[in-house]
Amino acid sequence: MEVVHDDEQMKDYMAAAIGVTPDRPILIDRFLHNALECEADAISDGKDAFVPAVMEHIELAGIHSGDSACILPSRQISEENLKTIKEYTRKIAVEMNVVGLMNMQYAIEDGKVYVLEANPRASRTVPLVSKVCGIRMVPLATDIITGSLTGRPSPVPELKERKIPYYGVKEAVFPFNMFPEVDPILGPEMRSTGEVLGLAETVGEAYFKAQEGAKAVLPLQGTVLLSISDGDKEEAVPVARAFYEDGFKIIATEGTAKLISEAGIPVERVNKIYEGQPNIEDWIINGKIQLIVNTPAGKTAAHDDSYLRKGAIKHRVTYITTMVAAKAAAEGINQMNKHGNSEVLSLQEWHGLIH
User: Fold this and answer.
1) Global pTM?
2) Are residues 216 and 328 in contact, defined by beta-carbon separation less than 8 angstroms?
3) Other Cβ atoms within 10 Å of 255 Cβ, number
4) Please, are residues 229 and 302 in contact by the beta-carbon 8 Å criterion?
5) Which class for 138: exposed (0-12), middle (13-18), buried (19 or more C-beta within 10 A)?
6) Are 228 and 295 in contact (CB under 8 A)?
7) pLDDT tens across 69-104, in order?
8) Which of 27, 30, 283, 342 has CB 3.0 to 4.6 Å from 288, enough for a Cys bridge?
9) 70 near 167, Cβ under 8 Å?
């Protein structure tokens, strides 16, 4: 799968597509620009369905759901859209006569809910939803599936929505450290090989914990490098300000540095690898950078910036490749700098807070 933005990229993709025949056609969808992606795992008995909570993706639509960090329960989806998502999920589950577990994926663009996928099966997110929401989804689904043998009634009518006073953040775990020559760009094809979960009263702390679990520990001080593509430039200043207010030194490549400087934020310009020495690579090798925020310039760029991301992997520098993840990281760092780690609770203690 690939996201293409113009005719030239479409030609390149078609030229590279192998084995396309009338029996194996290419499917083209309209891409939802800057859409919020979310998903709902449901328990269905074929007549009704129950959704414990809606999981909100941190990365925007276009990143594979398995690779996206997610917040559960959602925090910025409107009540109206949540109601629509749950209603769509119930209707589709009943229409498809799903008995057991199902997963629905949605995107919200300009306040309108779109159905992306309806999967009449268990999803890899079921254990996460179960842990965060304090609901044993698999045993409940098994009860439904075996109901004709056991004679037990469906548990779905008895399931009620509950208030969850904390957040869980799922983060994907990637194998890029095992493949240092692979560019770690996220896209519509899944690249992760596992996932972890962070639980906390705030999204910021939960996100920080999840990154720690995924071995992408966020630094609480030091130097952050910003190298932002033209398509993401409008987000550069708010992200830079957030890191600066947390005490980080800001360094940036030429275009990004100019924007940040014009906004009144202290910044030091650094050379790209083809602009002479000392350059970004030298800073990374010498251990002078603690965090890298680099959004890919894409195939239309004059120079390839993949060396930056590969260098981060090689020298074990935490890196971020999307602006939404950079905002979440800044929020997590801010939370930890101000309040530190909260009290460690067992899963049973977290579930005791649900009402």
Assistant:
1) 0.87
2) no
3) 15
4) no
5) middle
6) yes
7) 999 999 999 999 999 999 999 999 999 999 999 999
8) 283
9) no
